[in-house]
Amino acid sequence: MSTLEIRDLHVKVKAEPEHPEILRGVNLTINSGEIHALMGPNGNGKSTLAETLMGNPRYLVTQGDILIDGQSIVDLPVDERARLGFFLGMQYPAEINGVTNAEFIRAAINARRPEDDPIPIMAYLKQLDETMAVLKMPEDMADRYLNQGFSGGEKKRNEILQLMMIKPHWALLDEIDSGLDIDALRIVANGVNQMRGADFASLIITHYERLLDYITPDVVHVMKDGQIIETGGPELAHQLEETGYEHLKAGEGND
């Protein structure tokens, strides 16, 4: 079993050192095989946490640590974290002209393999076709430029296609339900559920319980004012749907 540990993490925007910290002492432990949900109001640090875990150089860790099996990764760049098995499903996926989906995903897979052992092209194409069928994606999306001209729902499915093809150990999924209708939500959730297993863990950021009706988390956390203020089981998400976040105050939780 592998463990991701976030220990007393404080973070601010590197270009704005005079501004207050966005994360103010986050403590969180995720074990392989677990799905964790992170909920909370907008603007309280959830996306900043995901970006910091992925190594976005925009953010500066001013205190605390991020560890995999006891080894710090806080100084590793994005590409090295990706090779360790980190994956970020972004809230607003970038559009890249001139690079097709198929080319991008194959390059990402090969980046985690030995240089002299790339994935065989026929095996790759077979796996790509099968995975796109699971996500009900038209075949021509493989040949379209990465996210170029995609609708919001197509971008979200494309993120899950990358997730299922790359097979990371640690998936940071930031609002993958944003803008999806109910049919698309079921398809995206099914893709995430197919990834569940002993070698996979995920931190899913969402505002709404509806995603968690389709992906049942092992643990639910609530973030407010840059801190984890409450942790519980799946029932916590249902409670928040009824009560909202206004009653919660930073410092009241158990993390």
UniProtKB/TrEMBL annotation:
This is Fe-S cluster assembly ATPase SufC. Belongs to the ABC transporter superfamily. Ycf16 family. It comes from the Bacteria. The keyword Membrane does not apply. Residues 4-250 form the ABC transporter domain. Keywords: ATP-binding, Nucleotide-binding. NCBIfam families: sufC (TIGR01978).
